[in-house]
Amino acid sequence: MAKSKALHWQEPATEVCPQCNGSGEWVGMFSSGPCANCDGTGLVGSDGEPLSTDDLLPMMRRQRDRAVQQFRQLLQTPGVREALAEHRERLAQKERDEHAALRKGLRGG
């Protein structure tokens, strides 16, 4: 008989990875990459072992959902949408100016 899943998932006890100090990355002299001790997550179980995907995926989904909820709440704050639109327009104008300067440089102007 198949094992049934618990109705309420409990987040496992975690600690910061001692190898990468929670960054999820190792940095060498000439290269860097995901930490092999924590599988690039920055977290290990209380036993010091990497978290299983059965525990890791629900944790990441919850973190994503919290971030999306915070972003949506931020967009409801008065003035934020306008400030975001102004920022996007400044970035677009900067990009247009850089392209114009490159075209002018290519034409020898």
What does this protein structure show overall?
- This protein has helices spanning 53-75, 80-107; strands at residues 14-16, 25-27, 32-34, 43-45.
- 5% of the residues are buried.
- Among the domains are: 33-76; 79-109.
- With 109 residues, the protein is mostly helical.
- Strand 2 (25-27) and strand 3 (32-34) form a beta hairpin.
- The strands form 2 sheets. A two-stranded antiparallel sheet has the order 1-4. It has a two-stranded antiparallel sheet with strand order 2-3.
- The longest helix is centred in the last third of the chain and has 28 residues, at 80-107.
- The chain is flat.
Over the alpha carbons, how many angstroms does the gyration radius reach? Answer: 23 Å
Q: Roughly what fraction of the amino acids lie in strands?
A: 5-15%
What is the tally of helical segments?
2
**If strands are numbered along the chain, what order do they take across the biggest sheet?**
1-4
Q: Strand pairing plus helix content: what structural class?
A: mainly alpha
Please state the overall shape, judged from the principal axes of the Cα atoms. Answer: flat
Instruction: Tell me the distance between the termini.
Output: 78 Å
Poorly predicted sequence stretches spanning 5 or more consecutive residues: none
Query: What summary fits the major beta sheet?
Result: 2 strands, antiparallel
Quantity of strands, as a count: 4
The SSE order reads EEEEHH
Query: Which range best describes the helical content: under 10%, 10-25%, 25-40%, 40-55%, 55-70% or over 70%?
Result: 40-55%
Report the mean per-residue pLDDT as an integer.
87
Organism: Salinicola rhizosphaerae
Protein name: Molecular chaperone DnaJ
